[in-house]
Amino acid sequence: MGNDILFEFIGTAILILFGGGVCANVSLKNTKGNSAGWVLISFGWGLGVFVAAFIAAPFSGAHLNPAVTVGLALAGKFQGSIIGYCIAQLLGAMLGAALVYIMYLPHFNAEKNPNAKLGVFCTGPALKSLFPNFMSEVIGTFVLIFGILFAAGSEIAGPLPVGLLIVAIGMSLGGTTGYAINPARDLGPRIAHFLLPIKDKRDSDWGYSWIPVVAPIVGSILAALSYVAIV
Predict the structure, then answer these.
(1) Number of H helices, E strands in the chain
(2) Which of 47, 66, 84, 212 has the CA that lies 20 to 30 A from 91?
(3) Are 101 and 108 in contact (CB under 8 A)?
(4) pLDDT of 140-163, one tens digit each?
(5) Considering only CA atoms, which of 1, 59, 12, 56 is closest in space to residue 187?
(6) pTM > 0.85
(7) ∠ CA 193-194-198 to the nearest 5 degrees?
(8) Distance (Å, rounded) from C-alpha 21 to C-alpha 44?
(9) Which of 62, 55, 42, 50 is nearest to 140 (CA)?
């Protein structure tokens, strides 16, 4: 395993530690950040991307997301192992979610709402309607990949603009499904939720789980093809 694969694993674990951590801080009982709201969640995820990206970027390019890996590959900007990156991202996301569980264990035990516990790990729609939910993830991921592809060739390239892009997506487009926009970000922690001994947990909502995996890949492909056609 090369440093690039290793740092995709490390970077994605750090991303989920921050992102899942802010969800736990807002959602779980008796935390200092309980009920702080969507703005804190949006900034927590955006800054989590920023921190994870500046750690991983020198070694792996800091994809931290299978949709990014696929999009960059289709746009001719990545020649590494797509499968290796995606596996590292998924495993890193599982580790990050497990660390969130350990960090907030007393609050998981105190929380009575099983939906709040699940929401720390993975996304779910505010209003369940499969086609609109699917399109929300497609559009959100399209914006993410399209923005990353253009940022890579600009004077503002680097972790900060991508982190700010995540904040913008969360605030403007994230209220419908919780904006997974990253198959590993959703599937890895969902698997962790299934495996971990969480007190009084519910099922892991596998019926919905395909949307935050498939839709981001579709959005990524559309963004990459659009970028290639324009540029």
Answers:
(1) 10, 0
(2) 47
(3) yes
(4) 999 999 999 998 755 556 789 999
(5) 12
(6) yes
(7) 60
(8) 8
(9) 42
